[in-house]
Write a structure and sequence with these properties.
This protein is an alpha+beta fold. Helix content is 20%, strand content 36%. The chain is built from 4 helices and 18 strands. The radius of gyration is 49 Å and the shape is elongated. The protein starts with a helix and ends with a helix.
């Protein structure tokens, strides 16, 4: 009787859980009329296998939409569903074009294993096709004097609807596109490509342009917030430490002493000479007094014996 672990090892290839199986994102949301690309990743053991894409959540009842072993169309852009396998990157991608709300539902990307005892390795994803509008970036920041661009995407039902750009709370500010899908003035330019995108460009931004705006396609609308920042003010200032050679080079030349400059400073010199003379006279007077007192002490007969003692 074979040991149990040998039996378990012999059964490993029949269980996809022990391989790097097929994986994909669990949910996708896309606007009606747009296209969607779904990547399906797989392990290296499946590089040479057939891949497929079908609609449904059970393999037995899954409606096949594309397979890698089927001949490709001469113009893949015209196909509603196309599949492409890249065995080097270990991923196959499925592209669905011109989606409708009726295309919403569960889909399956799988690897066809084949064999009586081995099931295909599959992964499921839920696709939701919605009707309405979306904005690429609903919070925009621009510097004063510059321009910013808003991209509003709308579904297929809104292609022929009226397109508007309004400031929130001020319906009189609404700007409508003309029969060609365009509007432009000195501060705003609007362009509708008549497929799915409404582009609004705010030009020469001013501080008062900060606020909330509304992008309309028929009854569908999306909020957009615009923040205008003040233009930076730059003050040119040059601060440098001159070297010794630069300091010498920029020293002003000495001015010669003129007769006028001598006269303007003569009173200061006179005052200094008078002060110096007084100090000399005071010093001489003090010295003379000391000498006189000393001479008196030497000549006095009363003080002489005291000095000798």
């Amino acid at each position: 009787m074979l040991p149990p672990f040998i039996i378990a090892l012999s059964l490993f290839p029949f269980f996809p859980a022990f391989h790097c199986g097929v994986t994909t994102e669990g949910e996708h949301t896309v606007m009606e009329g747009q296209h969607l690309t779904v990547p399906c990743h797989y392990g290296p053991q499946y590089a040479g296998y057939v891949k497929y894409w079908c609609r449904g959540k059970m393999r037995e009842f899954c409606s096949s939409l594309a397979r890698t072993d089927e001949p490709r169309s001469a113009n893949p852009a015209e196909e509603e569903v196309s599949i492409f396998d890249d065995p080097v990157q270990l991923v196959f991608t499925v592209t669905m074009s011109n989606l409708k709300e009726g295309d919403s539902g569960w889909y399956m990307c799988g690897v066809e294993i084949g064999g009586m005892w081995t099931a295909d390795d599959v992964a499921y994803t839920n696709i939701k096709v919605i009707h309405g509008m979306s904005v690429v970036n609903s919070f925009l920041i621009g510097e004063e004097g510059s321009s910013i661009t808003v991209e509003c995407h709308y579904s297929e039902r809104c292609r022929e609807s009226e397109k508007r750009w309004c400031r929130s709370g001020d319906w009189s500010s609404c700007l409508l596109t003309d029969s060609d899908g365009r509007y432009e003035d000195t501060s705003v330019a609007i362009s509708d490509d008549r497929t799915r995108t409404l582009t609004i460009t705010l030009k020469k931004l001013q501080m008062r342009d900060t606020g909330w705006y509304l992008c309309f396609a028929g009854r569908q609308q999306k909020d957009v917030h615009v923040l205008v920042t003040p233009r930076p003010t730059t003050i040119a200032s040059v601060t440098s430490t001159p070297t010794a050679s630069q300091s010498v080079a920029y020293l002003p030349a000495p001015k010669p002493i003129s007769k006028e400059s001598w006269k303007s400073h003569s009173h200061i010199l006179e005052s200094m000479l008078v002060c110096a003379s007084i100090m000399i006279l005071v010093g001489l007077a003090i010295l003379a007094r000391k000498l006189w007192i000393q001479q008196i002490h030497e000549q006095d007969p009363v003080l002489r014996p005291v000095k000798e003692i």
